[in-house]
Amino acid sequence: MYQIPTPLISLMKTGPLDLVEQLFGEIQIPEAVFHELISNRHFPGESKMIQESAFIKKVMVEDVKAVELLCRSTGLDLGESEAIVLSDSNGAKLLLMDEARGHKVAKQMGIQLMSTIGMLLVAYKEDRLTKEEILECLEALRHSGRHISSKLYEQLLQKLAE
């Protein structure tokens, strides 16, 4: 199983949402993340994509107390906390998450992580995206307001140049 919250938002903004299915097959997202993704009135097209994607499965997190504790103790939002708890309780192979604080918490819990940038790099290595397509995705992400640290951006460019 794979847990994938925020990279879905990033990929919806750049176009290749089907890349997630190509790389991972069926994915699970907790209810809080699902509702975050479909509730923004400014993005009806993206909401429809999420709701109609057969490979995205909305999953209820059963350990509500663990989610509440994680929210209170770390300052993570509900979606991030549910994703981490769900990944941990289901033994997910990978959690795709972009938020730095969420990364830190999940890493401390021993959960395998990957960011949107990492996913784009995997797609490049597997010949699913060209260098030009990745650069277009990065520009689309920047123009849509998604933050990409200069360090990560430069690291990706170096790996694409290899």
The portion of residues forming beta strands comes to 5-15%
Strand order of the largest sheet: 1-4-5
Report, as a whole number of angstroms, the end-to-end distance: 31 Å
Question: What spatial form do the alpha-carbon principal axes imply?
Answer: globular
Radius of gyration: 15 Å
The oligomeric status of these chains comes to single chain
Order of helices and strands: EHHEHHEHHEHEHHH
Q: What is the name of the CATH superfamily of the largest domain?
A: 5'-nuclease
The description of the largest β-sheet is: 3 strands, parallel
Task: Estimate the helix proportion, in percent.
Answer: 55-70%
Give the helix tally: 10
Any idea what the CATH architecture of the largest domain is?
3-Layer(aba) Sandwich
Main structural class: mainly alpha
Give your account of this protein's structure.
It is a single chain. The protein has 162 residues and is mostly helical. The protein folds into two domains: 114 residues, Rossmann fold (3-Layer(aba) Sandwich); 45 residues, no CATH class. The protein is 62% helix and 9% strand. It has a three-stranded parallel sheet. α3 packs across α6. It starts with a strand and ends with a helix.
Descriptors:
single chain, 162 residues, mainly alpha, Rossmann fold, 3-stranded parallel sheet, two-stranded parallel sheet, 5 strands, 62% helix, 9% strand, globular, disordered N terminus
How do you describe this structure in short?
By secondary structure, this protein is mainly alpha-helical. The protein has helices at 6-14, 18-24, 31-38, 44-52, 64-74, 78-90, 100-108, 116-125, 131-143, 150-161; strands at 2-3, 27-30, 56-59, 94-96, 113-114.
